[in-house]
Amino acid sequence: MGVLKLSLFVLVLSGLLYIYKEYKRTENLQIPFDGRFHPDFKEVVNNFRENFESGIEIGASLSIFHEGKSLVDVWGGYADVTTKRPWTEDRLSILFSATKGVTALLIAVFVDKGWLDYKKPVAYYWPEFGENGKHEITVEMLLSHQGGLSITNGTFPIQWIEEQPEKVYRFLEQQTPYWKPGTAYYYHSITYGLFVDSLLAKADPKHRRVDQIFKEEIGDKFGIEFYNGLPYHLYYRTARYEPTPFTSVLWKTLTSLDFEPLLTRYKLMDPESIMGKSFISGTDAIPVDTAFNIPEYTKIPQSSLNGYSNARNLAKLYGIIANGGKNDEGTLLSEKIIQVLEEPLTSGVSLDGMTISNFGRGVIALIEDNQLIGIGHPGYGGQIAYADTRRKTGFAYVTSRIKEVRRGAFYEEVKQYRDIYYKCLKKHLQNKKA
C-alpha cells in the first residue's frame, strides 16, 4: 500500500512539474518591444513591458487615444513564437468578437444616415427575414442578442458567404427563434455576424458587402485599417493565432483555485448546453485551433469573429467615438447616436443562467460599481476595444496568444493597464492645467 501511495505521489508530482514547465517554457525568450508614448504615461508602458519579460504576454499591442490624439502606442513580443517572428508596428491580428463592436459602429453610421432605424423590424429592410416567427424582431433586438437566433437548425459551408450569398440569405430566412424574441437574451456568438452582415447588405442603398461598407464609410475617410475578412495579399502581416495551452489553464487553475475557465470550456464542449449548441451553429464547424491560421478561412468576412486589425487602429476608431464622434478628419457619428449606443438593453442573467451582460445596440455597456465606464466589445481570449466618453478615451488591446476562456470584458492584465492609465491620465490633466 505504501508503494502504491508513493507511486501515485510521484505521478502527480511529475504531472504538476510537466504542467509548470509547459506553462513557463517561453519565459527565457529575448522579447522585442517598441512603440511611442507620452512621458506622462510611462507607467502604463512599463507595466506592459514587464508582462512580456515575465512571460504573461507573448505577443500583443496596446494603444490609447485621448481627445482624438495618441497617448500610448506600443507593441511587443512575437507574432509567431515558433519562428520567433517579432510583433512589428503594422502587425495585424484576429479580433474574434471585438469585430462585433466595430460592425455595431457601422450600423450606427447607417442609422445616422437614415438608412436604418433601430426601432423598425428587420423585415422592413429584408422582408423574407420575417418568415418562421421572426417578423417582430427589431433591428435593436437583433443587435442586443434578444432575437432568439443564437442556435440554428443545421449549418452551411462558410465559403457560401463569399461564393453564394443568396444561399446564406435563404438559410437565415428559414431559421426559427430558439426562444420568443424579446423575452430573454443569450449571446449570438457565431450567428450575430451572419444576420447583421446580411441586414447591412439589404439596407445599404448600394447593397455592398460588409467589408466594402466599412472601407468606404469609415476606413478610407478616417485612415483606420480594419479588415472584415483579411485579403490574401495581407496575410503575411498577421500574427499567428495561438490558443492557450491547456497546461497553462490547468496550472493557473491549480494555483488560483479559479475554476471558471475550466467550467466555461466544459460548457463549450457540451453539445447539449446552449453555449455548446451556439458554437456549432450557423456555418459548418470550424477547427478553432487551426482554421484561423489558414488564408482560405481568414479571408471570409464574418462580423461575429473574423475581423483583423491592431490596437492602434481600434483605439483611434473608439477614440473618435469618445471624442464626441469626431476628430480632425471629420465627423463619424452624431453625439445623439453615441448617447443611444450607451444605453443598455439587457440586464440580469442570460438564458443559460451563467452570463450577466449589459448588451446595447451591438456594443456592450461596460459597467463597474454601477458606473458606466465605456461602450465597446471584447473578443475571445482577451481582445478588447472601447470608448470611454466621460474621459474622452479610446482604449484597445489585441493579442495573438489567446488567454484562458472566461466571462467578462476585462481580463486581469488588461484591467491593470486600464487602471494605471486612468491614474496617469489624472496626473496628466493636472500637469496640463499647471
Q: How does this structure look, described?
A:
The protein has helices at 2-23, 42-53, 98-113, 122-125, 139-143, 160-163, 165-173, 191-203, 210-222, 246-256, 260-269, 274-278, 288-291, 295-298, 311-322, 335-341, 412-433, and strands spanning 33-37, 59-66, 69-80, 85-86, 93-94, 155-156, 227-228, 282-283, 307-309, 326-327, 330-331, 364-368, 371-378, 384-388, 393-399. The protein is of the alpha+beta class and 434 residues long. The protein is globular, with a radius of gyration of 22 Å. The mean pLDDT is 90.
In terms of topology, how is this protein built?
Elements: H1 2-23, E1 33-37, H2 42-53, E2 59-66, E3 69-80, E4 85-86, E5 93-94, H3 98-113, H4 122-125, H5 139-143, E6 155-156, H6 160-163, H7 165-173, H8 191-203, H9 210-222, E7 227-228, H10 246-256, H11 260-269, H12 274-278, E8 282-283, H13 288-291, H14 295-298, E9 307-309, H15 311-322, E10 326-327, E11 330-331, H16 335-341, E12 364-368, E13 371-378, E14 384-388, E15 393-399, H17 412-433
Helix pairs in contact: 1-10, 2-17, 3-8
